[in-house]
Amino acid sequence: MEVCMRPQLTAEPLLNQQTVNINDPKEAARLSSALPAVIQMLEQFHLTREDQAILLGVSTRTLQRAVHGDLPALSPDQITRMSFITGIYKALHILFNDATASGWFKRPNRVYPFLGRTPLDYLRQTGIPGLQDTRRLLDGDRSGQFSSTPASRVAAEQLPFQISPDLLR
């Protein structure tokens, strides 16, 4: 049996794709217009306005004004938070039915990184890094990794994989 190392990945296919510059005021204004939709997503999780504001990195007053159509210009950090929340929302609705997804934020979870806390408590304490970890966890679950830890992912990347001789013919 022949042992092969994982192929090196290249970013070449991505070079021609345009990325969004969230530091550009026009782009930030365009992306800020999604705030009411993200608030509606958070409402489906039965989160208080205070919790919504903390997750989005805005004041409760700003959140109230946005609900009534007075949209703020969001900072790059706030736009990043909206992006992670949107990804978390999408992943939860792919993984679970609506009833399970809607209660997910408030149910204690033993999986890393929550370690017995509710996802909401974890996210309130950790901000953007916590949103990123949560999105990564759920995206991993969607792809069949099922709650792998950062350490286990690094270890798995170091493992050689074997190609069966019958596949080499």
What are the defining features of this structure?
single chain; 169 residues; mainly alpha; two-stranded antiparallel ribbon; 8 helices; DUF2384 domain-containing protein; Xre/MbcA/ParS-like_toxin-bd
The quaternary state of the protein chains shown equals single chain
Question: What value does the Rg take, in angstroms?
Answer: 20 Å
Taking pLDDT < 50 over at least 5 consecutive residues as the criterion, the unreliable ranges are none
Give the SSE order as H and E letters. EHHHHHHHHE
Shape: globular
The total count of strands amounts to 2
Strand order of the largest sheet: 1-2
User: Which structural category do the helix and sheet elements fall into?
Assistant: mainly alpha
Q: What percent of the residues sit in helical stretches (DSSP H or I)?
A: 55-70%
What is the terminal separation in angstroms? 12 Å
Strand percentage lies at under 5%
| Major β-sheet profile | 2 strands, antiparallel
How many structurally independent domains? 1
Describe, in plain words, how this protein is organized in 3D.
By secondary structure, this protein is mostly helical. It has one domain. It has helices at 25-32, 35-44, 49-56, 60-67, 76-95, 98-103, 119-142, 150-158; strands spanning 2-4, 161-163. The two termini are 12 Å apart.
What's the short story on this structure?
The chain is mainly α.
